[in-house]
Automatic annotation (TrEMBL):
Its main location: cytoplasm. Residues 5-66 form the HTH dtxR-type domain. It is found in: Cytoplasm. GO terms for molecular function: DNA binding; DNA-binding transcription factor activity; protein dimerization activity; transition metal ion binding. One of its GO terms (cellular component) is cytoplasm. Keywords: Activator, Cytoplasm, DNA-binding, Manganese, Repressor, Transcription, Transcription regulation. Pfam families: Fe_dep_repr_C (PF02742), Fe_dep_repress (PF01325). In the presence of manganese, represses expression of mntH and mntS. Up-regulates expression of mntP. This is Transcriptional regulator MntR. InterPro entries: DtxR_MntR_Metal-Reg, Fe_dep_repressor, Fe_dep_repressor_sf, HTH_DTXR, Iron_dep_repressor, WH-like_DNA-bd_sf, WH_DNA-bd_sf. Homodimer. Belongs to the DtxR/MntR family. Signal peptide: none annotated.
Length: 153
């Protein structure tokens, strides 16, 4: 069984994904600034994420997400944006409150709940990353009542 990423590690992946378009690198300084942490803390997190196969980097060079990191970061980012949109459009929360709550909830919310929010907003359901199996799981209702999976390489 794989050990689940901490919320902090998920936030690092999301920050890297948002700072650098796919295939491009990002500087450690930019990640630290984005998350309001020291460069030493960010560097330590990069080492942990590299060991888990989410990114690649060499000291003093740009940091790149691996395919696994991109899949996971996309999933977390999609969850955040879905929750944020649901809170602001359906629940009419102000942006600041909705964004802060989405940031906290994105780490613990199930794919079923995300997809229920997306259905409520008439949006296509999404693939969710299952860290236990390292597969992307499509919601059964959008896969002809048969869940499908794709290896996150």
């Amino acid at each position: 069984m794989k050990k689940k990423l901490t919320f902090t590690m998920e936030n690092y992946l999301e920050a890297i994904y948002e700072l650098a378009p796919e295939g491009q690198g990002v500087r450690l300084t930019d990640i630290a600034d984005r998350l309001g942490v020291s460069k030493a803390s960010a560097n330590s997190a990069m080492g942990s994420l590299m060991e888990k196969g989410f990114l690649s980097f060499e000291p003093y060079k740009e940091i790149y997400l691996t395919q696994r990191g991109i899949h996971f970061a996309k999933d977390t980012t999609k969850k955040h944006h879905t929750i944020l949109e649901f809170f602001t459009s359906a629940l009419k929360l102000d942006y600041e409150t909705a964004n802060a709550d989405a940031c906290a909830i994105e780490h613990v919310i199930s794919c079923d709940t995300i997809n229920a929010m997306r259905r409520y907003m008439n949006k296509e359901e999404c693939w969710c990353h299952d860290e236990e199996t390292d597969f992307l799981i499509k919601h059964p209702e959008t896969a002809g009542n048969t869940a499908t999976a794709e290896k996150a390489e």
